[in-house]
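Database export, one record per block. Field names are fixed; values are copied verbatim from the stored entry.
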Amino acid sequence: MGWYGQGPGRGERTSLLGYGQPLAFAARGERHCLGVRRAGRRTPCPTRRTVPGRAGNAQCPECAGLDRSFSVAADTNAGDPRTYRVYLAWFGAGLVKVGITAEERGSVRLLEQGAVAWAWLGRGPLMATRRTEELLRAALGVPDRIAYARKRSVRGDLPPEPERAAEVAALHGRAAALEGWPESLERLECEVTDHAGVFGLDALPAPARVITEMVPGGTVAGRLVGAAGPDLHFADGLVVDTRLLAGWELTAPGEGGATDVPVAVVPVTGRDTGAAQDGLF
């Protein structure tokens, strides 16, 4: 987890979380905008505006707009000279998306999204990878974004690793056989990577409840058994979407250690493959 402290000598730091270890924290005060992070540096929000507790993004509208003005995902930075890669990401049976990421980031984007299995398709200039993404999305019928809630709902009931790899490889083969790939894009052979071990999915209980927002004084406590994308999974089936923690001051909990923040039941969507319209990706 990343932390950001304001004031002299209180910059950014990280804390490693260990599976099987207890984790507990409480929210204090109000949730404030985190400002803008660009080129590895964070600029604090000049007004420190408050942010709604249920918002997935801990930014005020002004800071979010500034962020998007430099965003490849929002198509506002088409002149980015870096090399990009196109990938297939698998989250559950029939739940696959196509996307792009800067080559220099490696597999970080796949980890951020909670991709259980994935494979590269090609590499090249930004606009070539973007055109390839659109080609594959239309021709293969796969989306370019899937809501975290849908990924979460299938995470506790995954097929074995060979089946996951076979599904990714089959779709990779269909993609490679398509005509219309940009000439400037270098195609890449299929090598499927599986994140089940990294995420701790082998010992993961079926997700049962998910925190919908943090509240002042709200406490979360439990034993951490897995982490996929932004989700922290606890041994009792509780899931904490860490995007909802951003912007809060977190402190050690008081006596008792009970979870007393709003939660919702995790819906079981089965193997629905329709494109989601809500949530981040």
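Remark 1: Confidence is low (pLDDT under 50) at residues 270-281.
Remark 2: DSSP finds six helices and 16 strands in the chain.
End of record.
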